[in-house]
Request: fold
Amino acid sequence: MDSKEKVKKDDKNLLSATAKGASYLILLQFISRMLTFSLNQIVLRYVSKATFGIASVNLELLASTILFISREGFRSALIRSSKNPQSILNLAYIPTFFGLVTTFLTCAYYLWTISEDEAVRFPYYRMSVLLYGLASFLELTVEPLFILALNRLYFQLRKVRDTFKIYIYRKYWFDKPLLHLGITMTKQSFLKHVLTEGDKMLISVLSSIQDRGVYAFVVNYVDLLVGKKWSLGEGDAPGVLSMYCIYVPFMGINGITEGFVQAVANKRDLTRLSYFMLLFSACFMLSGFIFMHLLQLGANGLIMANMVNLGIRITYSWYYIRNYLGKHVTLSVRQWLPHTVTLSSFVLAWFVTYWSKVHLGWYTLKQKLMHISVGAICFLFVSLIT
Reply:
């Protein structure tokens, strides 16, 4: 009886810690997103599309490449391990040391590819590359604490610090199975990085700097009142934003299905997934070349290529999930879709807002306020219906 009560108590503590941790993370994400959103609005009013494209595509790709390749594989392996905390902590230092090599190689490549024309047009470009590289490496230095916090469900800094003091002086060899799993997932992270950040890679090669700015503008919490310069010219921000809204459900479904696969897959499954990622990468690059280079669709073409990419990945993950659950759970693609009433309200809201854009206009402050008011009414209508 005591053992059952202990198990129930442990489960309750785990649930409590998870809920508390989730609330911390949600609050942190909210504050971070709102701060980023606010700063973006200030930046967008004073910079050109080209400058914003360099910062939000090229430099962000630099940072994400260093961080993702250096830490993603071991982070995924270690946070779900239930082995000795010191073994986990020892392996958690590997991303930091690996980050030294990744930072040096990535920054060196960027500095080598900056042309003289770009250096003249953007005089602080090279300095920005070095600063982004340094900032990324500094972030990797706290990776052991971060991994330990997630693994032990510690979400307060003091607990993480005290635990770190206890474990840092104890000596354990690397846990070989866990090390091999981390290496396997790190190899996979190279391909996953291409799929995750492939849009920035493609647009930095196949599109103009202006298109990079428009795409970054849409992805980075586009505000509706930043001015005409983001609605006219080589890239049409409202049009790209409309296409991006169609892309959002693809990201949501892929995040859920792929997250399930990553959580339950064993080493053999992950190795097989790595080979399939080669195919996914090839399909993504091919679709990007067709939409952006042959069809000249610019940022819209990039979003369409991303849809193809996520569509293929969702198909693979769905196939894996159905095989994993077997006949115990009945699954259908129709279960993904919202209720018919919900879909109908979305379609009606789209027609109303499209009519508003065409007939009310968008370029003067009065037109913006009227159009936004129509959108707010549609939002309330959809909320009440659904």
Remarks:
- The mean pLDDT is 77.
